[in-house]
Amino acid sequence: MKRRALLSTVAGSALGLAGGCLSDADEATETPANPQTTATGSPTGSPTETDTSDPEADPDVGLSVVNEDDEPHALSVRVTDGGGTRVDSSLDVGAGPGYGRNVANDLVGDGSYRVVAELETGATLDYEWTVTNEARRLELVVTPDADLEPRQRVTPAFDDADLPYSVPDAADIFSPPTAGIRNRSDADARLTVAIEHDGTLFFEHAFDAATDREISTPSLVESHGTYEVFVEAEDGRTATHEWRIPEKWAWPTLAVLVADDGSLRVGSGWPKMASVHVENEGEAERDLTVTLVRPDDADAAGDDAGGTGTGSGGTVVSETSRTVSPGESNLAFDVPIGDEYELSIETPAGSETVDYPACYCWSTNVTVTLEGGSSGGNGGGPSVESSQYVCE
């Protein structure tokens, strides 16, 4: 792997390149036309806004809600400033993860708002939202445990950068990708992100990754190819990613994450829960283990999503075991960051492994069939069918 001046201070670290893929968005409710924004639903009833005739209203200043829980919720929102009430609304939010809708647009420009929100579960949020030239949109996030969190959308300008980067004689990408930077830990972080192509460093920028914001960059590259991404925090934490953008994929994105535990992850889509469909054709319960492995990543100590080396050139990043009853069911497992993985399906009678891209606009569906033996019991090994889907 090539080294750069930025990472020279961690030359003693093991910085393995993770396998790359486009980006993550199996969530059917997200639209690839703008991977970093939420889809707008068509709910009954619309939010109530006041002062819509305000001559200083700015159409770029807006408020939305996104549901990362798998249950629908009812939300009430009140937004005030020194001039009075700007929004007083109650709305229904469809089940997620990934469902989103607008609450209000055309709020006034730079300044501070008080945003008070409450779910029907009793979870509340009281947040001071400061609108600046870079931070003009706020999301109210319903978390998977039905809590409320603020997430400011920040889009910095790179006046000194020649973006998007173009590779001579390479095909253009249909939708030139941006990068998203999220911080889900309890502490603010400052991250430096650098991107190389064939040894040429063409992008390097430091970002203030506060815990209540998501940073979206302008388009970074416009050519299909393979790029090396390096991320470093001020305290020395690092992560790397081989960002592959083959010609047949038109909707790439890059995700940089400070996870809940403070670890750095970089990949081709955000963490999510995935599942395999299981058809147990026997009359007895069967034991099943699903293991997600990042191939050729055994040396990526402290990098990306972490994991445990398998001793065979791969790293286990997620493992789930369950006893499945006869009939059909789904077995869920964790995908810690968007990437190209292998998925191993194992029973006491045998195992099978398939390629498993889990990225934005490059996803995998898996069906596992457990055939029943003549006398029940564990039967034979699993039969696995997989299919991949891409945005073209």
Automatic annotation (TrEMBL):
Q: Which residues form the Ig-like domain?
A: 72-148, 188-268
Biased composition (Gly residues) is annotated at 304-314, 373-382
Compositionally biased intervals (Low complexity):
37-50, 383-392
Q: Which InterPro entries match?
A: Ig_halo (IPR058929)
Q: Where is the composition biased (Polar residues)?
A: 317-328
**Where are the residues of the annotated region Disordered?**
17-93, 297-331, 373-392
Membrane-crossing ranges are none
Source species, domain of life: Archaea
This protein is called what? Ig-like domain-containing protein
Organism encoding this protein: Haloferax massiliensis
